[in-house]
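Teaching note: in complex prediction, the entire set of molecules is handled at once rather than each chain in isolation. The prompt given to students was simply: 'Predict the structure of this complex.' The entities are:
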Amino acid sequence: MISIDLNLVWTIINIIVLYLLLKHFLIGPVTNIMDRRRQMIEDGFKNAQAAQDDADRLKQEYEAALSGAKQESVQIVEDARKSARAEYDRIVNEAGQKAGSMIEAAKESVRTEREQTMKELKSQIAGLAAASAARIIGGHADEKGNSALYDQFLKEAGEGNGNAD
Amino acid sequence: MEELSCETVFSLPVVGGISESVVVTWIIMAVLVVASLLLTRNLSVENPGKVQLMLEAGIGWAQDFFEGIIGKEAKRYGPYLITVLIYLAAANTLAPLFGFKPPTKDLNVTAALAVMSMCLIEFSGIRKNGVKHWVKHFAEPVPVVAPITVLEIVIRPLSLCMRLFGNMLAGFVVLELLKFFVPLIVPIPVSFYFDIFDGLLQAYVFVFLTALFMTEEME
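The expected output is the structure of the full assembly:
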């Protein structure tokens, strides 16, 4: 019952053989499968994390681009408004100037015309005066003749004046 | 009394007698290998079946258990310890349930396991810390204890061997006596206790202590 013999050696060999067999047929495959599953799950997590990071990065980029575009549009509107105002001012100024110069020209022409008329009038009055003086000196120095002469003078002067205006 | 003795089943011309325990071990080995072949037939990473889940739970539990004791080195020594655990569980429980004498009732078997454990314990220590440290560590903490720590090399496997052998033999003897006096019904719960509970417990204790001694040696 209690004796050590060669069976101890056979048992050792048995255990070593059993170890190799079980390692190859049971523990190896099962461990392999478990490792592969763990690897797969880790890969899945890693991929999910990478996708998440990617999405975050893209979102940030879009946000940056969007805010840039907003600023740019504000800038463009501002510029357009400024240039429109400048154009408006320029046009109004130009129109004002043009109108001013036109009024000025009109005034000028009116004045010159008036001066010319005055000049004509003066010369006619001078002529009439000279003619009436000549008539007075020339003869009929009576009352009736004088009054007729005045009337004629005045009439001619009035006509001349009327014509001049 | 013939149940107590380990009979020689047959004799080979050169190597001598082959005892019953070795033959039962062969049978257990064959059963285990065939069972593993059958169980690991359709392993899949994504759709594990019920059998595979059970298998993975068992192997995973054992690996975690040894990793908890030994640490990182468990990857190297785990398969051997799992093999011993499975073998002892089968030898202690299945063999008596199917009418064989448990091989662990033979001192040769437990001694062989203890010798293997001894080699493994010392090997793990030498591998981890080198021969120099292994030689030096006998004189720690004080050189006076050196004879005792050297004796420990033998004492630890001897205690493993005798614990297993004594438990199995005692259980076997008690059960045989009970069967002799009360052959009906009463041996059933007792058999459950000695064959299944005590058998699994002893298998557990054996690998647990081996792993523990390895950890001690690797410090």
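Point out the following to students. The longest helix of chain A spans residues 7-138. Chain A touches chain B through 33 residues (CB under 8 Å).
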